[in-house]
């Protein structure tokens, strides 16, 4: 259980059950190396994404450029160290989907299981609402137990599972779509 939860100045501060202060704030370009390290842990673990190649600095520059405007990136920080990040990603370029965002969330291996994922998702929701989205969707592996528990715990519902949807390490894997309404939609 979180024992403190406070909004301030566009960021969000929480105290996790270990007593550690976690602040969520908008990411800055200087955070990109830390974001990349945490991203690459998730890729190496083969639990988070169909990406199998580790992200390079140029990959991250492209990714950062794609996250301007409404598609923001936030970082969770503990004593100046980035321990996790989340982002709102374009779901589709079609104007009809302008109210729908897709999310990513990654927590440093050493910090998983301490509610940082949950803190990041709560902040992300507020951010998405402020940026005019009414729904967040995500795609995850059904066997990603931490992800399943995290998403269901904050109110995401399973839309369905694509069987043998993505090719990873020489075999096809299932991918689950989930959604959460975060504001009144059209
Ligand atoms: C998935 C991830 C973001 C979750 O973040 P986290 O900070 O570790 O998760 P939290 O501590 O907020 O825990 C959320 C819930 O998941 C549960 N959980 C955490 N780790 C777990 C694990 N390894 N197995 C099962 N459940 C787990 C927690 O108990 C908690 O459940 P509760 O609310 O019922 O107590 C994190 O594990 C991670 O970065 N994994 C690698 C990247 C990834 O998979 N990203 C998601 C891509 S879809």
Bound molecules: coenzyme A
**CATH H-tier superfamily:** Gcn5-related N-acetyltransferase (GNAT)
Alpha-carbon distance between the two ends: 34 Å
With strands numbered from the N-terminus, the spatial order across the biggest sheet is 1-2-3-4-5-6-7-9-8
Number of DSSP-assigned strands: 9
Rounded to an integer, what's the Rg over CA atoms?
16 Å
- The third-level CATH topology is Aminopeptidase
Helix/strand layout:
Layout: E1 4-8, E2 11-15, E3 21-26, H1 32-45, H2 57-65, E4 73-78, E5 81-90, E6 100-107, H3 116-130, E7 135-140, H4 145-153, E8 157-168, E9 171-181
Parallel strand pairs: 6-7
Antiparallel strand pairs: 1-2, 2-3, 3-4, 4-5, 5-6, 7-9, 8-9
Question: How would you sum up this structure, described in words?
Answer:
With 186 residues, this protein is an alpha+beta fold. Helices cover 25% and strands 37% of the residues. It is built from 4 helices and 9 strands. The chain has helices at 32-45, 57-65, 116-130, 145-153; strands at residues 4-8, 11-15, 21-26, 73-78, 81-90, 100-107, 135-140, 157-168, 171-181. A 9-stranded mixed β-sheet has the order 1-2-3-4-5-6-7-9-8. A hairpin with a 2-residue loop joins strand 8 and strand 9 (171-181). The site of coenzyme A has 22 residues, from helix 1, strand 6, helix 3 and helix 4.
Please give a handful of descriptors for the protein shown.
186 residues; alpha+beta; Aminopeptidase; 9-stranded mixed sheet; 25% helix; globular; disordered N terminus; binds coenzyme A
Give a concise summary.
By secondary structure, this protein is of the alpha+beta class.
């Amino acid at each position: 259980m979180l024992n403190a939860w406070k909004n301030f100045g566009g960021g969000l501060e929480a105290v996790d059950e270990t007593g550690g202060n976690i602040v969520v704030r908008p990411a800055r370009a200087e955070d990109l190396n830390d974001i990349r390290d945490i991203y690459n842990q998730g890729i190496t673990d083969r639990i988070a994404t169909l990406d199998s190649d580790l992200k390079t600095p140029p990959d991250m520059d492209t990714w950062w450029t794609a996250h301007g405007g409404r598609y923001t990136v936030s970082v969770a920080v503990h004593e100046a160290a980035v321990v996790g990040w989340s982002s709102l990603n374009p779901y589709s370029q079609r104007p009809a989907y302008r109210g729908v965002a897709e999310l990513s969330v990654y927590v440093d291996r050493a910090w998983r299981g301490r509610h940082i994922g949950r803190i990041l998702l709560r902040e992300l929701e507020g951010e998405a609402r402020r940026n005019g989205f009414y729904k967040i969707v995500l795609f995850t592996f059904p066997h990603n137990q931490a992800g399943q528990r995290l998403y269901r715990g904050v109110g995401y519902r399973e839309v369905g599972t694509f069987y043998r949807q993505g090719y990873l390490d020489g075999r096809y894997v299932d991918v689950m779509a989930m959604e959460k309404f975060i504001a009144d939609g059209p």
